[in-house]
Amino acid sequence: MKKHNFKKLQIWNESMLLINYVYKITSNLPDFEKFGLRSQLNRCAVSIASNIAEGTSKSSTKHFINFLEHSLGSAFELETQITVCFNLSYISKEKFLDLESKINIIQRKISAFIISLD
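Request: output the structure for the sequence above.
Response:
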């Protein structure tokens, strides 16, 4: 298997930018969501990049793909959670659509990368 430097992967770099964006949005959620949605959203965003990075350390393509699939799963989980935030009127439609678009782009890129490795 070809080893990848996660810091050079576009999907990892875009995921790192997404983390910053999510943290900015979650800082404005209600205080009572500190250990609920806020924490969950932040952990999901970090999980996307973390699983990409961890996957690059694996010795087989199969294991790397498994971690990319976990990363993809976290991206879908994050999309669900921002929908909850929007439905509860915690974030504006503009912020929701912007964040949803960023997440969808990462989802497509991770999926495409998995296909290229398979």
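The helical segments are 10-26, 37-55, 61-87, 93-117.
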